[in-house]
């Protein structure tokens, strides 16, 4: 099966992610290799290119903020959480389209922490990375990175993203039409050059960068040296299109790295997660069975003769048949599961079998525990 690489574009607000995506899109269209585009930024107003999957089609950022009384970042995170509940559908679509597309481009919110450090961001990233060779493109606003302290802050940020996602990363120095990125490349390859720039800034700033800050920067630059070894660095101008070919070459080399280094790690982690989940399910099943035995000996199994069951007793109906079309229903569905599993009506042997079947099925089907929900929601 053909597996198009997924390029996830991350970067600070205003670094030029959207313009970069637009440039990649135009470049690939020109080469007659149209990409598949996913927008994960719920707050973006105008996207200057066609998207195939857009988070804004499934969640309304403004309404989410209003409904849950949230600020801008909370709103983005909640939108991502709601979107993450649909990740199975997204993966289904991508897998269906995979044979006909050259690359998948994913735009992410400028508030990086909302995506990279949120549970939903991790779910989306893991889902993509476990199905397709996935590469991160970290976009840097070059003209704003010319001082040693902003350069270092940006690199530490990139390092923490690499540490969190554990995916191959390409550092993209953008806006090189306005500022050449040679200085940054030199700082990344020549430790002495960075030290010299540090000293120069110390002198210029009348020693404000000296003392504690100076020695901290020195130590961090030594630590970052190791981080730089794992990166590919390219300079581009999303405005003019310069450097885009080199970027795609870097993507190809990172895809090889993904296959060699990251995929085995991901497989290992997935197997460990599954084994843990299976053990957990077996434990839950044992407990459920024990509960059911107790329940079967109770009055639910056979009503005592002197207890009259009223003719209007409601039928056992675990959940409403409504499909989970919106967030409220998703939440309500989850609450209902708990209610029903505790209501003591488990003495019914056919229900016992069905719950057991569903729990096993859950382990086989998906990683997000939705099959059990589907089972409960399914009309019968
Ligand atoms: N000179 C120059 N300007 C650029 C380049 N790329 C982007 N810009 C400008 O940088 C600004 C921000 O670009 P966007 O693409 O909106 O940045 P973004 O990272 O998507 O911004 P958020 O969505 O807010 O996170 C815009 O004014 C762009 O025109 C470039 O290569 N050269």
TrEMBL record:
SUPFAM superfamilies: P-loop containing nucleoside triphosphate hydrolases. Residues 295-380 are annotated as: Disordered. Residues 314-341 have a biased composition (Acidic residues). GO terms for cellular component: cytoplasm; nucleus. Keywords: Cytoplasm, GTP-binding, Hydrolase, Nucleotide-binding, Phosphoprotein. One of its GO terms (biological process) is protein import into nucleus. It is found in: Cytoplasm; Nucleus. Residues 353-371 have a biased composition (Basic and acidic residues). Binds to RNA polymerase II. This is GPN-loop GTPase.
